[in-house]
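Re: the 270-residue chain
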Amino acid sequence: MLKVSKDAALERLQEIHKAMPRQLTWQDPRFTKWKALAAARLESVFGEDGRAVEEFNKIYFSPGVFTQDEQKNEEYARKGYQSGVRKSDDFFAAWEQRIKDYEPEPAGPAAEPAEAKDIAASDAKVFIVHGHDDGLKNEVARMLEKLDINAIILHEQANKGATTIEKLETNAADVDFAIVLLTPDDMGYSVSKGEGSKQPRARQNVVLELGFFYGMLGRSKVCAIIKGDIEQPSDYLGSLYIAYDEPGAWKYLVGKELIAAGIGIDLHRL
């Protein structure tokens, strides 16, 4: 049931519960930040597929209906959020009690110690694939630095006489995760549909490297951040991605993906 000790599990749940914003709405960035952090902390206690995580994800803070009347929408938003707060109070109270009552099964015969799953943040290497948006590239790099993770950016690495693809292969060989930034750097359109169908899209090298890391690391260790309304690669449609937002909730969602990939980080450092 628990991935950590009873004391640690109880402390984490109480910490999340205490930090829950009580007088916001579901669209407030402070709530989005808390929800992402809470989900990550619950997964660290119960595991990604634990029943508690599933129950928490079914708690909704958004209103059930929307109308043309803005005043009514505001009222519905407040009521929906307060309903989520009450359900969360019940959720945390119930699971805190379950943890207190939890008794682990007696240990069986001594076994070889299991190899630690997590990679220490300071040992982890995360490759940042980017286009022309230097601001977002630097923002991601600073986020990784706060988490004590080594950020790998291709143009900052020595060339050593290699071609671009050779340099990519060399520097990507021992990374643990890749963050791919799909930003609106180019314009493109289908010849059959004409220039009137053009729309922003990511640089072609970024799309190439997205596929490269999918093949090398597997999709669970690649996180795509999409900024703005851009054309997605056709083979990527249907895949999950993280939408960039100015308040910064995306950072906690990326952190959650890093944790799921086995990198031991502390989201409180963000």
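The chain has a mean pLDDT of 86.
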